[in-house]
């Protein structure tokens, strides 16, 4: 039902759009109706009954009643007011109003505001405490049953937005409350501490612990004083009006000392944005607003609670200079002088290509831009790269070969909208938690189909409609076989191929060898499974393919990425909403670091250094002569250190000495450098090899922009002043450049962006003004500011507008000797970031996940006598690592999983090799084998029982309000009013 | 050849240097805020003279205990009732129309003045006829008609305006569309 319709509101006839609820229509028309449990991101929950209005003579909940033609709606009748008052009374029965001494008194409390709006002055059912203790067990948030109004927003968010399915309301108990799993304390449940519940809670029932005793002027009062204080406030109540006035004043006063700053998360490529609430340098909470473009109300544990590191005592606060066997703290002046002197000497003696620059996918776009400008324009070398080389460059290559843009084809909305999502080699629920929620929700509520191909049965795999476990490194084979089968069946999208794609004939020929038989033999997937996958793709109108490091970190990572894109082209799954390729960018600014030219062959905007016209454009703008020959990538720089061609290295914001593969080899390379500069927030492993260490400021201490995996550019604002003498990277880079004679004069990152945008066609219309607050842009952005949420709607960015099918061959994975019988899979955990130097600083996270661990299968445990806590040594041809085991059926057979979150003996890259993707030199991290020795049978389980992985989720749809309605003590306020009217005649 | 090293020699300030830096910082702050600091000193001097300082000292140094005592003292029916009445009175005061009240108060004042001057003696007894005769006195007559008007007003129905006794749905305030009394 859509189109215009006639309705009568409070006696006035008006026109209204169809297809909306009455509440939606009323609030859009500024007719105020209370709605305590309603949340725009959650939809109608129907628990609070405060939104009752009269529709055609019936009292109904306006949140769940759809507007119909001819409706007569009354929002002011005495019956309506009375029904709403009864509903509010029921809420106040469950919630004590002591607003002035409540930490949630910040102007956003739905209970407070509704009481005020309804001008309720006293209540007929007095507040009554519930017979439950506050649950303070979780390190990040606490639940106060006494303040809980049982609206169920938290349950809705947990069950149907985050889809961890931990929270429920126990409607069967005498006094209902929110319960975790089967009624265990929060910290012993399956709760992943994502923070959704405390974000959506309308009052102070579910609250971030950072707020407790800190937010208000009077809330820090000792407990024994607080109780009588609450009693006084209640005793004084002369009707709530006057009390609410006082608490409103207090709430306004809070604005003077609580600062709310928008920032963008740095823990993965999803690009969540949120307000950080701070008081001085204390973080009160992280609050994602509904209008946050990538995440809405969603966050994960790291984004919501993982910022303790910013205030860590271990932060670098002064430059360090190597002197003999130790570093000494130095002034900026001295450190910068030394750098300028050494860089100049080395350049003079060995030429500009003897210097290397490594930028960071954690830093801002502006900083990446300046780093490559420093390398190219000031030093004169293209030896510039960044750590997306370690993860996502192969995906970018695969997309450039086939569809022309190296970025996700659409937005998260498109992924949620797809009929079928295929996830290959991505532990999405842990590596991109907020994006994963969109898939989980679409699958749970909208019947989206999910196929997962992975070695490990991670969360997405266990939820998948079809989960397949191909042999490690065989993805290209089964994907190509499925593609061939689709073509052979005549299921290819002929019209799409004819009009929009080139190279079909040659491509079909290249698939000749990928028969189902061959694929079955090579990948281990049965022919039936392959056919089922093909059928699923054929049956779905809209298919999205998501992939990550399980695809890219192989010898043939670029080729497998290409194969995925080929499959999507054959089936016409590009250039429409709800379709396309989504290589999931790992870090917050992997996309941006690439976009802004931190790459040996590309200037900003993927413009090639060997293209004379491009170089000329940049030379004119920068006023310098630029090198035309592509430089070294990360991998080649490491080899350069060893063979002596690279003399100096400047690494910014990269723990390269731990996260590159085969780190023994990398670290040995550092030792050979003449001069090594590391710029970071902490004294990292890499920094230990440096000659000069510069203290940088993290995202909370600077402005700039990040570009997320959806190609979405978002601004971050400065939450804190830089700690100690640390500085934002862009300022440091400018000072270095200026000491080398560059004469840069940027006063604000916006000026850097303006310069970059003028040189990068895909960023043409990008400006800070267009990205104020929560506004964002998805590239390519036209000069007039029009952006591109979905790519390829009008064809592909090749001269003829057509995509290319690109034939690829399978690269046989690295072969190891027979003694290396354990396949060491590796990757991320939900709760830690990278090697962990940020997230281990969080006491809460460390209490739940104190160290890394080795997941071993029950079969392997049985065979070798492994138990939870057994200490083993893994030895690969490149090194060895020591780590304690956890036995779990997430892994199978001789497959083990080692999360990458360790800086010591369990660091995965002690085992990985220097083998790499043949096209991009991305290390083949995922092709690692080792042998296992047991060092100690008994030991402490490295994964405490308070870890969510031991929890026991309880899936259900929403809050199950029907169970509330079925309670003998529940009567719909509308019925109550009508009954009373009938009695009183 | 640069081996990994982990020793960091911090710039350790001697106690003397640190003191010097701190003093410099304070000195700058003092100079930057010269005016306000001198004035504050003046205020502090007066506070000392009046004994306010030692009082505040006691209050703040035992802050939590004092607050506890205060709160406990206030946490009884009488005190809360005082506060309650205060808040209620503030509300009621807000409903009084001072413009209309002013002439009445002026009249009340002059009445009070007369009474103050009036000497109570047995000779001045008021007889029945005196009363009737007094009706002719314009001042008395005006006072009486005023009184009758007032009585009329007092008899008007005002339950709908009462916030302490009426359910919200019965309050006039809620009968109006915009929450304003005049639009009900």
UniProtKB/TrEMBL annotation, chain A:
Claim: Cell inner membrane is one of the keywords in the record: no
A Gene Ontology term for the protein's cellular component: membrane
UniProt keyword annotations, A-Z: 2Fe-2S, 4Fe-4S, Iron, Iron-sulfur, Metal-binding, Molybdenum, Oxidoreductase, Repeat
Keyword Cell division (UniProt): no
CC cofactor: [2Fe-2S] cluster; Mo-bis(molybdopterin guanine dinucleotide); [4Fe-4S] cluster
A GO BP entry: formate metabolic process
Molecular function via GO: 2 iron, 2 sulfur cluster binding; 4 iron, 4 sulfur cluster binding; formate dehydrogenase (NAD+) activity; metal ion binding; molybdopterin cofactor binding; NADH dehydrogenase activity
InterPro entries for this protein: 2Fe-2S_ferredoxin-like_sf, 2Fe-2S_ferredoxin-type, 4Fe4S_Fe-S-bd, 4Fe4S_Fe_S_CS, Asp_de-COase-like_dom_sf, Formate_Dh-H_N, Formate_DH_asu, MoPterin_dinucl-bd_dom
Highest taxon of the lineage: Bacteria
4Fe-4S His(Cys)3-ligated-type domain: residues covered: 79-119
Residues in 2Fe-2S ferredoxin-type domain copies: 3-79
Residue ranges occupied by any 4Fe-4S Mo/W bis-MGD-type domain in the UniProt entry: 258-314
Record-annotated 4Fe-4S ferredoxin-type domain positions: 139-168, 182-211
Stated family: In the C-terminal section; belongs to the prokaryotic molybdopterin-containing oxidoreductase family.
Record's protein name: Oxidoreductase
Species the sequence originates in: Mesobacillus subterraneus
UniProtKB/TrEMBL annotation, chain B:
Pfam families: DUF1641
Transmembrane segments: none
Biased composition (Basic and acidic residues): 171-184
InterPro entries listed in its UniProt record: DUF1641
Domain of life: Bacteria
Disordered as annotated region, ranges: 160-184
Coiled coil feature spans: none
Name of protein: DUF1641 domain-containing protein
């Amino acid at each position: 039902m859509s189109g215009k319709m006639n309705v009568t509101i409070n006696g006035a006839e008006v026109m209204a759009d169809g297809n909306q609820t009455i509440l939606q229509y009323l609030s859009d028309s500024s007719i105020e109706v209370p709605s305590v449990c309603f949340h725009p991101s959650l939809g109608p929950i129907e628990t609070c009954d405060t939104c009752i209005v009269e529709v055609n003579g019936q009292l109904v909940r306006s949140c769940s009643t759809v507007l119909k033609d001819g409706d007569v709606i009354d929002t002011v009748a005495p019956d309506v007011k009375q029904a709403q008052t009864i509903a509010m009374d029921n809420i106040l029965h469950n919630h004590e109003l002591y607003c002035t001494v409540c930490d949630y008194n910040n102007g956003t409390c739905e209970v407070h505001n509704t009481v005020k709006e309804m001008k309720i002055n006293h209540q007929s059912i007095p507040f009554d405490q519930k017979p439950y203790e506050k649950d303070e067990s979780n390190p990040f948030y606490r639940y106060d049953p006494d303040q809980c109004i049982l609206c169920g927003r938290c349950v809705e968010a947990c069950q149907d937005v985050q889809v961890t399915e931990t929270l429920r309301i126990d409607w069967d108990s005498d006094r209902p409350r929110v319960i975790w799993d089967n009624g265990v304390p929060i910290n012993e449940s399956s709760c992943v501490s994502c923070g959704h519940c405390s974000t959506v809670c309308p009052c102070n029932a579910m609250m971030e612990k950072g707020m407790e005793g800190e937010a208000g002027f009077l809330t820090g009062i000792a407990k024994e004083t607080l109780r009588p204080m609450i009693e006084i406030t209640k005793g004084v109540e002369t009707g709530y009006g006057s009390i609410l006035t006082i608490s409103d004043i207090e709430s306004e006063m809070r604005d003077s000392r609580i600062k709310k700053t928008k920032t963008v998360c740095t823990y993965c490529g999803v690009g969540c944005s949120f307000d950080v609430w701070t008081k001085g340098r204390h973080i009160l909470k992280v609050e994602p607003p509904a209008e946050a473009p990538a995440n809405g109300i969603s966050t994960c544990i790291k984004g919501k609670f993982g910022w303790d590191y910013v205030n860590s005592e271990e932060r670098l606060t002064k430059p360090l200079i190597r002197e003999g066997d130790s570093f000494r703290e130095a002034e900026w002046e001295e450190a910068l002088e030394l750098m300028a002197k050494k860089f100049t000497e080395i350049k003079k003696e060995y030429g500009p290509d003897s210097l290397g620059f490594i930028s960071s996918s954690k830093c801002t776009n502006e900083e990446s831009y300046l780093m490559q400008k420093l390398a190219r324009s000031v030093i004169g070398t293209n030896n510039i790269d960044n750590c997306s080389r370690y993860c996502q460059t192969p995906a970018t290559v695969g997309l450039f070969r086939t569809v022309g843009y190296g970025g996700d084809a659409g937005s998260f909305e498109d992924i949620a909208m797809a009929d079928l999502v295929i996830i290959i080699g991505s532990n999405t629920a842990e590596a991109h938690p907020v994006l994963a929620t969109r898939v989980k929700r679409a699958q749970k509520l909208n019947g989206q189909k999910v196929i997962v191909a992975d070695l490990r049965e991670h969360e997405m795999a266990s939820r998948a409609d079809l989960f397949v476990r191909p042999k490690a490194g065989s993805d290209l084979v089964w994907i190509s076989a499925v593609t061939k089968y689709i073509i052979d069946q005549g299921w290819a999208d002929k019209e799409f191929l004819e009009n929009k794609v080139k190279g079909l004939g040659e491509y079909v020929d290249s698939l000749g060898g990928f028969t189902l038989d061959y694929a079955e033999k090579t990948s281990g997937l049965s022919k039936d499974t392959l056919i089922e996958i093909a059928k699923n793709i054929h049956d779905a109108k809209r298919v999205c393919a998501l992939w990550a490091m399980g695809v890219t970190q192989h010898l043939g990572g670029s080729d497998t990425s290409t194969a995925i894109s080929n499959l999507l082209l054959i089936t016409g799954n590009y250039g429409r909403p709800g379709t396309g390729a989504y290589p999931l960018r790992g870090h917050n600014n992997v996309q941006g670091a690439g976009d802004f030219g931190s790459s040996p062959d590309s200037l900003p905007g993927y413009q090639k250094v060997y293209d004379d016209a491009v170089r000329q454009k940049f030379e004119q703008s920068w006023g310098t002569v630029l090198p035309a020959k592509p430089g070294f990538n990360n991998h080649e720089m490491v080899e350069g250190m060893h063979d002596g061609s690279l003399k100096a290295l400047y690494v910014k914001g990269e723990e390269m000495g731990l996260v590159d593969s085969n780190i023994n080899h990398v670290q040995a390379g550092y030792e050979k450098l003449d001069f090594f500069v590391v710029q970071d927030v902490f004294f990292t492993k890499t920094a230990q090899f440096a000659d000069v260490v510069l203290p940088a400021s993290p995202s909370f201490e600077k402005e700039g922009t990040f570009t997320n995996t959806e190609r979405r550019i978002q601004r971050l604002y400065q939450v804190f002043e830089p700690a100690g003498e640390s500085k934002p990277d862009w300022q440091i880079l400018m000072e270095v450049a200026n000491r080398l004679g560059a004469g840069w004069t940027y006063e604000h990152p916006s000026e850097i962006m303006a310069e970059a945008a003028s040189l990068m066609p895909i960023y043409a219309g990008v400006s800070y003004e267009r990205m104020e607050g929560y506004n964002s842009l998805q590239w390519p952005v036209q000069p007039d500011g029009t952006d591109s949420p979905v790519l390829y709607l009008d064809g592909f960015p090749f001269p003829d507008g057509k995509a290319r099918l690109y034939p690829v061959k399978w690269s046989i994975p690295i072969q190891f000797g027979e003694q290396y019988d354990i396949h060491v899979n590796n990757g991320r955990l939900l709760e830690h970031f990278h090697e962990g130097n940020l997230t281990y600083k969080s006491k809460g996270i460390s209490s739940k996940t104190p160290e890394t661990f080795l997941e071993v299968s029950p079969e392997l445990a049985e065979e070798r006598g492994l138990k939870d806590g057994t200490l083993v040594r893994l030895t690969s041809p490149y090194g060895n690592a020591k780590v304690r085991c956890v036995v779990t059926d997430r892994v199978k057979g001789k497959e083990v999983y080692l999360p990458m979150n360790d800086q010591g003996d369990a660091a995965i890259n002690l085992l990985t090799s220097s083998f790499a993707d043949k096209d991009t030199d991305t290390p083949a991290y995922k092709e690692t084998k080792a042998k296992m020795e047991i060092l100690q049978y008994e030991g402490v389980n490295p994964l405490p029982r308070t870890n969510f992985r031991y929890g026991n989720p309880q899936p259900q749809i929403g809050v199950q309000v029907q169970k509330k309605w079925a309670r003998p003590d529940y009567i719909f306020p509308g019925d109550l009013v009508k009954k009373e009217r009938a009695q009183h005649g | 050849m640069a081996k990994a090293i982990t020793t960091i020699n911090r710039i350790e300030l001697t106690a003397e240097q640190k003191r010097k830096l701190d003093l410099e910082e304070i000195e700058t702050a003092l100079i930057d805020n010269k005016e306000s600091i001198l004035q504050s000193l003046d205020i502090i001097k007066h506070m000392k003279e009046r004994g306010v300082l030692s009082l505040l000292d006691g209050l703040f140094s035992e802050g939590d205990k004092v607050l506890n005592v205060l709160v406990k003292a206030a946490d009884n029916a009488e005190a809360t009732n005082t506060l309650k009445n205060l808040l209620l009175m503030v509300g009621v005061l807000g409903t009084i129309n001072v413009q209309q009240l002013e002439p009445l108060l002026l009249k009340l004042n002059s009445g009070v003045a007369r009474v103050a001057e009036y000497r109570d003696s047995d000779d001045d007894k008021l007889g029945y006829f005196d009363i009737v005769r007094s009706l002719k006195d314009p001042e008395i007559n005006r006072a009486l008609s005023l009184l009758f008007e007032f009585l009329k007003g007092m008899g008007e129905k005002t339950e709908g305006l009462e916030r302490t006794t009426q359910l919200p749905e019965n309050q006039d305030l809620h009968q109006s569309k915009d929450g304003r009394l005049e639009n009900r």
